[in-house]
Batch of 4 targets.
Target 1
Amino acid sequence: MNIGLDMMGGDFAPLEAVKGVAHYLSEQSASATLFLIGDQQTIEKLTADHKISKEHIHIVPSEEVIGMHEHPTKALKEKQRSSIAIGFNLLATGKIDAFISAGNTGAMLVGSLFSIKALEGVIRPTISTVIPKEDGNTGLLLDVGLNVDCKPEHLNQFAVMGSVFAHLILGIDKPKVGLMNVGEEEGKGNIQAQAVYSLLKGNKHINFTGNVEGRDILTGKADVMVCDGFTGNIILKMAESFYEITHRKKIHHDYLERFNFENYGGTPVLGVSKPVIIGHGISKGVAFKNMILVAQKMLEKKVLEKMKKALVE
Amino acid sequence: MNIGLDMMGGDFAPLEAVKGVAHYLSEQSASATLFLIGDQQTIEKLTADHKISKEHIHIVPSEEVIGMHEHPTKALKEKQRSSIAIGFNLLATGKIDAFISAGNTGAMLVGSLFSIKALEGVIRPTISTVIPKEDGNTGLLLDVGLNVDCKPEHLNQFAVMGSVFAHLILGIDKPKVGLMNVGEEEGKGNIQAQAVYSLLKGNKHINFTGNVEGRDILTGKADVMVCDGFTGNIILKMAESFYEITHRKKIHHDYLERFNFENYGGTPVLGVSKPVIIGHGISKGVAFKNMILVAQKMLEKKVLEKMKKALVE
């Protein structure tokens, strides 16, 4: 399998991306060939510095970079020689099987939605985040910002996609699906939540266990928590800020450290036909390594085929 | 001024309510006569035990209690001799000027909305929570659950009511009003947030400073943060659970302690014609004292008149 990596994306590019490649290739389980898209000279020098064997990498030269604050659609259209545009081109033409970048999130989303297709049966692709649970486990929250206005059937699909991902990638057996809501009982919530509840209850592809409230996000009540992207984005950014504030105030604890989102393997765009993973701008080597491992696992475990199956059946 | 207190509400009633009364009456600034509604014999004994002078209290006997899990409307209707029903009756007939309870939240809301009237000009009364800011200041978030389906004009009114409260009760000069959203710039957000943005921008009664994101909730970006009750309830409960988890994990810090919502003076129902304050079930003496002080301040500063003025002008 071939996995493409945007070497120019993120605040610490390309050095941390190179470190991530070195980390990944030193893993026993590493089985992909990596396509490193970026400034050829720099990448050649850095990979040599980090003693990365040429056997498992291909350097794909790019001449431009899409900045973190550029307008996504405009930049993708005008900068055809940028690492992100080249990455999506390789993905669309099948030269790579998955694509990863910690660069401009908007450009990554636009690329995911328009350069490659949505997965068969998917109305709206989605993005998720892992949630560090109090008991040491990891949950999944989705959507976290791609779809700020949702219809009930969108959330019903998020539940399916999230369940497949939680099962195959996070390793959770029969993940408990919870609906983000303002009360425990059926019938609680706004009009949207009430409509979604009925759909989830009747969905045989998921293990729906009822509503979850704000107080349940960090506990074990549900593994996959479903909401619209407006609510999810606020939850995610609030969780990130908890970590940042405790960090600034020098409050240290292993549990708080798990809110350090740079440790996670980025956010896969779920519901598109090929794995695309968007990293945090602040991604360091470990995050890049984890993103490559998640992409590899998504390909190995045929996550997208299984999502499609659960959605169209 | 006369302030009514439900002595039977809350997990630690009536003892902690009595402690709160004693605390309050020992404050220099205490200027209200308290109407203590509850089991006469118990309250008489406890107030004597706590050496509470009879000069500033009236005991109003009640024979029933609305349990924490009773159906609000049904219980209020059937238990006319309950402390909450008696409290609203006293409030509606003008015998008390404000009413406080840490009892059944639903019954308190139903009482607020149906026993007394909405403030002139108010479409939807609302409930708020104080938010402990990273810099030591205190912000206000509203709505936190009373209105889970909102129209843009509701949020526009929440902004006005929140601003008046933040100014007069929290002591914030020209409170910065922020709209809870998923991005900084105008034009971001779901359909509702976009519509609310336009209204807030044109509202001359508030100091609107733009959107706030999840990461800004705990920072100084805005003093009054406006959202629908679905979003606000999830934010509030998540913040509460963050405190509880750090507490369970024995992570201690002064800042985290400020998330201990039992220290705060309850949640006033804003937009009804008389001050009503709903305490947390877990309210202890300090919380009861603070609730009485907030009620007193709301009456002294004529908070409701000023809200009305800002809303109808």
Target 2
Amino acid sequence: MTLKKEILEIARKARETSQILANLPTGVKNAALRGMADALLRAAPALRKANARDVAAAREAGLSAALIDRLTLTEKVIQGMAASLREVAALPDPVGEVTRMWTRPNGLQVGRMRIPLGVVGIIYESRPNVTSDAAALCLKAGNAVILRGGSEAIHSNRAVAETLRGALTARGIPPDAVQVIPTVSRKAVEALLQMEKEVDVIIPRGGEELIRFVVSRSKIPVIKHYKGVCHVFVDSSADLGMAEAVSFNAKVQRPGVCNAMETLLVHCEIAPRFLPAMAEKLIAAGVELRGCPQTRRILPLVKPARKEDWTAEYLDLILSVKVVGSLEEAVAHIVRYGSAHTEAIVTRDYENARRFLREVPSSTVLVNASTRFSDGFELGLGAEIGISTTKLHSFGPMGVEDLTTLKFIVFGSGQIRL
Amino acid sequence: MTLKKEILEIARKARETSQILANLPTGVKNAALRGMADALLRAAPALRKANARDVAAAREAGLSAALIDRLTLTEKVIQGMAASLREVAALPDPVGEVTRMWTRPNGLQVGRMRIPLGVVGIIYESRPNVTSDAAALCLKAGNAVILRGGSEAIHSNRAVAETLRGALTARGIPPDAVQVIPTVSRKAVEALLQMEKEVDVIIPRGGEELIRFVVSRSKIPVIKHYKGVCHVFVDSSADLGMAEAVSFNAKVQRPGVCNAMETLLVHCEIAPRFLPAMAEKLIAAGVELRGCPQTRRILPLVKPARKEDWTAEYLDLILSVKVVGSLEEAVAHIVRYGSAHTEAIVTRDYENARRFLREVPSSTVLVNASTRFSDGFELGLGAEIGISTTKLHSFGPMGVEDLTTLKFIVFGSGQIRL
């Protein structure tokens, strides 16, 4: 069988299964999710054994310690995967919800009902826990999922998927609800991206290069997130202590993630009072600062920021700092150099809070809180399937509801159009 | 200037303008829309003159009478365009609406605020009234629009756009809110489809071939609608008179549009009583019937339906007819051969109505009403920018709200992540 035929076979099975999944009662889905959690815990030794093969290969290939850490399935990681499955079981079922109803002058009652997307393709890198998290969220929303993880995690992903499929079969749900593409070649991804009849959406999770590859090849709609260049704007009226705490948290608490701050914007009126203590605290935490000319007038020892610093996603203990003359200038900087991900203002001014919230066109906009809250779980979605920085379908962290769509339902009594 | 540079210039101006449009007060947008209506009426003689050039060229090129009819700007069509602009002015403004708010255990208040998509590209064929309709809906939702109409309407589209831009300028709104691509070559479209940084969404409106071309080339998300193969299912318990009226209306009232019925499904228990009178009425209206073997046992004079009839979008007075054994068989036929557009059931059975509504995965599902109601205006959206038969972003007829997205807004009091 050619590779293309093999992928088509997988996609067709997913499409077929999706029609069954769309109409599963909530109780059946939740019982299956809990069964999947139990199965993962029971299979822990086998999963760790499969994972050991991937880890050994990664060591041999000389992958970085950080990457090997993300790849490794410890007992604790497996327990976390099982706990996530139980959490998804406890979430409300979005399928079948009627979000609104209204009546037309001719008596037609029109409403919108939430239904699954159908077949979801997830293309991701490294972490084997994405395999069970994505499978859980897709099942809860009534979708079939096709998973294509990184080549470095292939044995782990296959073992996790086989365990989940076994648990599905035991509950009478077709195991093709969760399928893993068994080939690691990019040709397999390319083939999948052509199957717009069988697959409804592609969610790539990984580096910018992977995502650009997917977008340029896909005939299927892609929900994507290139990078997170997040800003904190310290307004002239900010409480100094709060501004310091929020900025420090946004940069230092976990610098390697997409909702960490990369650029600090400071109003010129507060900069001389705010920046010296803030810089001292950041530098003490190991942060390298890169400043605009005005910043360097206040902090002469700071390196100059170059143009590429304003668009950089460092994912590291580096921070660019810019002094701005007004709220307008801060917003304009964010629009020009940002990535539409997450921005925060620290202020005590009612009107500036309101304007920042309204005018900043990013997927999450916060007042007096750290950018690190831009996360499906922290915002109250229960879990996260990914994040979107394009405005189509979803914008920002995506939960179970984002794996559904709304159809129109119409109740009539014989109406015809005149 | 190369073509690519010229298009990039247009796209950049649109992006820049979109930032101003996103924050325009509702009153300013509505006044501009009314000003655009007045301007179209004042410019009617000039518009008709420009249109006459297109019509003459179309006649010379031997275009069909139907196409020339759609292309022609009569006094009445221009009045209709002005009336639509006023209707859009009267619609509620979706921008800034906060659809939900909730509070997290740490005190963060999280909500979702509706904001414009940004820059919308519309690629369409023939009808010059799409130029003003699309411009109106995009402006109302705070978006800049880039319009690329069919080559046969180029003079008309330019004249309409110039009139609208003049009205915008007169109200202090940047005229680049509405731009027309001045080149008719497909290369211009191809160039536009690469500009994912400048354009947020592409909505193609036209034949399947145009849409497939756009999907295969676009790096920008596309909201699309390939075709409408709509079904009416007459259940065994249907009221015969209602079933006849709904089916007749769905097929005959306007056969050339995407929400007209193309296949009639009839439950075997009612077929012998329903089909003879129904067929007589349809044939009298000039409809050609093509039936499955069971249909032809009841109606021996009807032509046999071939396999390709079940997926055909006739857009004409032709109807395929199939007798089915159950609701399940009807739903399975729709899923297999349909286009996820619009389907109706005629029934008196509560449980079958409920199951059909729930299980049919099409964008509009009706009980006891004609498929012809699947239309933005008829469903109460006020106006329609297009229709989507893919489930991403929007599914079904799209109104002003579908030209917006939701961002997360967060009100804190200094929260940091632990």
Target 3
Amino acid sequence: MSVLVVGTVAFDSIETPFGSAERILGGSASYFALAASFFTPVRIVGVIGQDFPEEHLDLFSQRGIDLEGIKRERGDTFHWRGRYHEDINVRDTLELHLNVLSGFVPQLPDRYRDAEYVFLGNIDPVMQMEVLNQIRRMRLVVCDTMDHWIRESSTELSKVLQRIEMLVINDSEARLLSGYNNIVRAARAILKMGPKVVLIKRGEYGVLQFSDSSVFATPAYPLEEVFDPTGAGDSFAGGFLGQLARSGDQSQRGIRRAIVYGCVVASFTVEDFGVKRLTTASLPEIEERYQRFVQLTDFHT
Amino acid sequence: MSVLVVGTVAFDSIETPFGSAERILGGSASYFALAASFFTPVRIVGVIGQDFPEEHLDLFSQRGIDLEGIKRERGDTFHWRGRYHEDINVRDTLELHLNVLSGFVPQLPDRYRDAEYVFLGNIDPVMQMEVLNQIRRMRLVVCDTMDHWIRESSTELSKVLQRIEMLVINDSEARLLSGYNNIVRAARAILKMGPKVVLIKRGEYGVLQFSDSSVFATPAYPLEEVFDPTGAGDSFAGGFLGQLARSGDQSQRGIRRAIVYGCVVASFTVEDFGVKRLTTASLPEIEERYQRFVQLTDFHT
């Protein structure tokens, strides 16, 4: 079962305490697609500029990622520059050039419109809604957002929230969206806005999942080296939705296991700069770390 | 199997965003003892002043806590005043009056000296060593410490670390003690200092346990109301060691389950001011929440 992702395909320039990288492949759709592609076929909808190199497109193709939905426009590709602090959980955005992303209106190729699993990456809610309106059939829509859209586009975002099944959001965004400081209250308030399931990402501390009938909490996979946290959240979402599509199991048990797969894939991403580790990891490695994760957290058996 | 705790018995004056409390019962030994007393008999070693009311001693006695090791000295009881921020994970110490605690030398009653389970609460490492030297027989020593002793008494602390089995410490203290920012590296470095097991408390994010052969990670129990986090760490330690003493099971499985019991007891503590919730909770309530914790975290079965 294939997964459709709409989001950014970008250049990232990154400084961490351990090194720096200039204009490497980034963007929410890139991380999501590479992460999900371990589990299931992926289709990307996004926009790139004339400066976007063929080698990145080749990388996607080699992973079986369908690129018909990627549009190349006149101009430069979206470019983000950020710096991580000594405390790697804190980062500053130094530059943000929307370039071809400004004014982008997603256009789904006709054969994308029967999309059973959809991930609306962190882009303007107006674009997210545009994608929803173009899809004929959907089984599960998972959505991400960020502080900027919560502050500046709350009306549009609230319409999107009413049409999705699951929201993936980090803890500070959940607080901002709900107005509650306590994360359990925040999640409960967000459930009333539309989504049936809220997944709260807490970085190195793991993930909380809330629905009306169930709460699930998992730690993250503890790593001795966190090289570059960029894309961890989108890798989580890709691993999560990829596994859900692979298993077809949307029971609470299936969702919980998919969350753990998401954490496992994200743990690979942060081990190297940008998408690098996602391109060297293998499904057997992922399955092995999943088993370690089982051992890491098990007091049940 | 009884548990011996040495630590502070104190007055706390606390302000949180939800209210304030003046000169209520506090101190590491108080929280630890009440928490552990759900599971096993407890003996306290500590010092109080002439101003310490009988009603607090009665409370301990009602819970079967042995008070022969509590010494009443001329002067006032140790008093801490603190204020929690809107973000309840952050607090400032406003006042700290050692009073009778300064110059205190723990003296174990003779019948305490065959202590199988020992908790060295967060006090001067010189006092912790004094206790160790007075004990004839011990099966398991668990120790806590804090930034002040790591900075000011590192030589004494390192001697204590060589004589204990388990260190319970929060994440920022682990970073300070080890010199590593990454928490996995920090824990590995601390294991080299003596303890066989390092338990890293991460507040609302849960606990990590490291030994040479095993890593265990658990989230905390998610709560809709965190009223007052004071004493959560000592309650965790009390629930943990109390359960270990009750079960007698120091296998990795037994340790993991005890960690979860510790998290459960701490989740009660923070639901009300001071030790209040520890005095109204019951063992059946604790067992019920333990079962909820199993469901909360289970993707294994």
Target 4
Amino acid sequence: MFVVMRTGASEAEVNGVKGLILAEGLTPFENAGEDRTVIAVVGEIGKRREQLRVRLEATAGVTAVTAISKAYKLVSREFHPENTVIRVLDTVVGDGSLSVMAGPCSVESRDQLFETVDHVSTHGATIIRGGAFKPRTSPYSFQGLGVEGLRYLAEARQRTGMPIITEVMDTSQVDIVAQYADILQIGTRNMQNFSLLLACGRIGKPVMLKRGFSGTIDEWLMAAEYIASAGNPNIIMCERGIRTFETATRNTLDLSAVPLLHHLTHLPVVVDPSHATGKRWLVKPLAIGGVAVGADGVMVEVHPRPEEALSDGEQSLTFDLFDQMMTAITAVHGHVRDLHGDLLASASAPAKAGG
Amino acid sequence: MFVVMRTGASEAEVNGVKGLILAEGLTPFENAGEDRTVIAVVGEIGKRREQLRVRLEATAGVTAVTAISKAYKLVSREFHPENTVIRVLDTVVGDGSLSVMAGPCSVESRDQLFETVDHVSTHGATIIRGGAFKPRTSPYSFQGLGVEGLRYLAEARQRTGMPIITEVMDTSQVDIVAQYADILQIGTRNMQNFSLLLACGRIGKPVMLKRGFSGTIDEWLMAAEYIASAGNPNIIMCERGIRTFETATRNTLDLSAVPLLHHLTHLPVVVDPSHATGKRWLVKPLAIGGVAVGADGVMVEVHPRPEEALSDGEQSLTFDLFDQMMTAITAVHGHVRDLHGDLLASASAPAKAGG
Amino acid sequence: MFVVMRTGASEAEVNGVKGLILAEGLTPFENAGEDRTVIAVVGEIGKRREQLRVRLEATAGVTAVTAISKAYKLVSREFHPENTVIRVLDTVVGDGSLSVMAGPCSVESRDQLFETVDHVSTHGATIIRGGAFKPRTSPYSFQGLGVEGLRYLAEARQRTGMPIITEVMDTSQVDIVAQYADILQIGTRNMQNFSLLLACGRIGKPVMLKRGFSGTIDEWLMAAEYIASAGNPNIIMCERGIRTFETATRNTLDLSAVPLLHHLTHLPVVVDPSHATGKRWLVKPLAIGGVAVGADGVMVEVHPRPEEALSDGEQSLTFDLFDQMMTAITAVHGHVRDLHGDLLASASAPAKAGG
Amino acid sequence: MFVVMRTGASEAEVNGVKGLILAEGLTPFENAGEDRTVIAVVGEIGKRREQLRVRLEATAGVTAVTAISKAYKLVSREFHPENTVIRVLDTVVGDGSLSVMAGPCSVESRDQLFETVDHVSTHGATIIRGGAFKPRTSPYSFQGLGVEGLRYLAEARQRTGMPIITEVMDTSQVDIVAQYADILQIGTRNMQNFSLLLACGRIGKPVMLKRGFSGTIDEWLMAAEYIASAGNPNIIMCERGIRTFETATRNTLDLSAVPLLHHLTHLPVVVDPSHATGKRWLVKPLAIGGVAVGADGVMVEVHPRPEEALSDGEQSLTFDLFDQMMTAITAVHGHVRDLHGDLLASASAPAKAGG
């Protein structure tokens, strides 16, 4: 349930409500919107619901106590109508601008990373991506450079001034990855690694949560709720294709997910056409599609010489293809943003908490 | 295999090749391109392949004999590099313009049809859709008005001057539907109704082939090949969502299919966001997405009062929503067409056969 | 809804109820069980429901009027608690015995058919299968011998005294197939070919309805309802695998469907492990599995020389493998039948109507 | 690749081969079969393959050096033809006997666990299951008793003398779970949690690896390979249903996986019909099906009062239903084991390593 405070409720009144919730062994989450403050009550409420509602309604400063219709609370638009806007270094995600996360699938060497970064950072990318810990189907495949890769990524940040996003595969890696990276990525196979979700919920850096390749929209939002419930409101959702019967593409990019999420949640949504299609030549058209349906950004893999890549070469863009894609999506983004206004309540108004 | 004639080959030479193929009990299909004529050899070639190749190569006017790498021949871009452009009444599909097929899911009455048609025909639609024979999951649901519905559709054509598309469910209906409609639609459940495909291949009107909700891209192209092999080159492919584990949408719209098809086939491709999403408010964003990835058109359901619709009311657009969608996709279409040039070899050059 | 007559209701009373239903433009279906007669009311009842219920309850001989909770009526166990038992020539399906439908995928020649039939008919098969009209993905693949194949099948019946099952692909083939075959098969791609379902509902021979490879249990039962509502109660359900992401098998055999169907419907259920797995060596273990979960029979493909088969050679059993499978499933059938008693209310009591 | 030693090769010869492999930075895995010893070479061999093969072939005691055709090596039957037989306390899994893992979904209290355990341990179960750390879709659902639950499980082992299996969700829990449990379970959502797989590969206790609900057979075997490559050969595979379009059951139990795995791997395979179906009344028929297709065991959820269960009550068996299932599967197991002999090379011959 959530508690709507009256416009102009005092800090003391807000704290009174929070205290009552804490005293019940539950957790209050505050969303201080422009007009009014809303406090979500989170935890196992069970049979106390009705009694608690009555007591909260009778508390000073409270206008209404409402049920949240979804199983996810903190990440729902019901609780938090304004878009979440995430600022990392000088970059912003979710404010109506177009985020472009680009870089190699794996950091293979200092040279390969810098060569790629030097290109994408000067041709439209806003965030540098690169894998240091790599989840590979086979234990005998290249597993990434690990901490060495993280160090190169940190150097790449210094070199470009741009934030770094990289994957964290396990709770034991959260601290070290958070030390080097600006945004932590949770991969598709870990969407329901609940221990990892909670661990990423306890750090002070934004998290990008990839959709599980067989995760429903509801499960994906519940996974985001895990992160939010642990205290981290800065979550980016990334649609990267789902597993279906079709084999012509590596996965099936579910572009319906973008408007659906914009309707259901206040979190920014980006699209990864590289993993979704698994084919270099399909990245541009699907990146265009993603931007056209209203995505806040795209994530793509770029490699100086894809044929030599240690992972995912088939789907990595050459520099030339990256430039073509950038030209296309920049043009499309300029035209479509206004078309989805009805789905994006208040794109430019970041909330105090949660944004 | 297909036989490439030399530039400027005479009609006699072309006929010589065709005669040789016919004498083998196989069927020749001619594609007279701008530069040169190509003749596909279709049928069960089996073990004669090598011997036949040698004889064809030695025939007057022949430049080369090549294998087609796909199981589908006539609908492949390998055989027919130019886009197929389909003209129906005053409308053209596949020439780079944006086709908009709109109308009610079911023709429910003369009034309901005309009310809808009067709106969409004056607000951007280029083709009128409406179901007379309705495939329904339950035998106890409204099954459509049948021939009465076809008659109203023919009246709607007279009223608007626009072509009519409607579904044919069975071989026994092909003649009567072809008598009234301008384009015959094969529904998703009939994508592999091979008898119906062949029957639609023998008529002189264009056919729109919806993707089976569990049909792979390859199976879909093979289904189109059935129609083409029976003599009908005027086929429109319609992506309408595939069945996946996700239940937040009725089906999952596979927008990757659009660039994939443009790469693999010369046939025009439209997108149906109404059936794919099953939700009215998702039609506009996905229609935008479809146009953005390069679709030649969209098909949508419109109803004057969706809440009273006898079928698919949930996904039918109101007139107002139709207008909003039209504004959006018209704007996007103007901007994106050039962005996909690499996938669309020669959009403005209709072939003699096949176009 | 359905109308429960009192025990010992007279024919006049039953006819009175039927007359009232017919007068409403609806159709009565009678199930004369051992204890009492039940009459289902089928058609678009709509808003008349409550009024009709009251009138029926007040009619002579009526004990109760009840709603059927499922969208399918005639095929539901609610309406018809006793198992449907189907007699064809000297064979019975659904009476607790084990039906084995065996024969070649395609009838390729008189010799090939007879060689196969001579083996399987003397080694445990109870019904002969063989395709005359073949649904093939490619228009250039062998399409079956057609009517010639039907004639050979009729000869095979004479030769063995066993009933013949073969596929009908289109409404236009129903008459000719029904003339030669004892059981008509509707293939997986035609599960929702509603015209074909209705046409098969109007003939006097049993129909085997294969599950669509992407058909849900509910859709499958609704498809059976089409056949039953057109007047044909003798329907056999055949689980043949569903399309999933897994590619190690051709499809995924859904053995849960067997107990589910036995719970939801009174119709017999057989399992086809040949099409489900697509691999010869998996046929025996999955046939065992099917019998173990309570299937009323299995359908398998057998070929004298699978490596020469014109279709589905990979999954065809050799004579030797067929014999091994027969030994195994006969043994298992003897042991498991009693274990599923709770799902099979009254396996040995065929109903008057519907059985 | 793997190195086949001659029959009677000396320990010195075996060590010579191992030394050569280690010197290359690769890892040797020895399978000492009855006749001869085979050594798998594991790691990134890359371009050294041919050179290494020649050198190994020339080494004393070596009969042949062969490629393994699959991406998984150590878990393949090619490398290790004998079945892996796992002994835990007085129980054996994979030796042809029927393993029955039973207990509550979650350990909810000491009383609930003991009440359940007292029943199942005296009615046919061979291993006690119970969740202490629970992966839940919602962060607000009951998350299990944690270490307290582990302690109760250890008490249950003392009470019954039977081994305990419980889930480990994260690398950080491996040590504590391994301290209390006899078999560690990796859940469906963690099948590709590669860090957890490696951590479980480094402990000295058997691991049961559930199939990811969207994991292919190949990915599942590669996940097992992660565990084996880290040094733990004692792995049990558990089929628990895959995610498909069908919603009549919670998941679709893929019983084809059982014979497929028995063909591809030497590891034992059990089936979990509780999670697969999500419906109590379907557990018995599918447990029968699983045993019939050759599974080495079943895992089921049992609760004294399922309607009060804190998780998965819908699918939990009552004591009475558990007893009925036990009677059924015991009977079936006695009859079917011999029927699958061709898939189970040498069921009674545990290997020295790997078994």
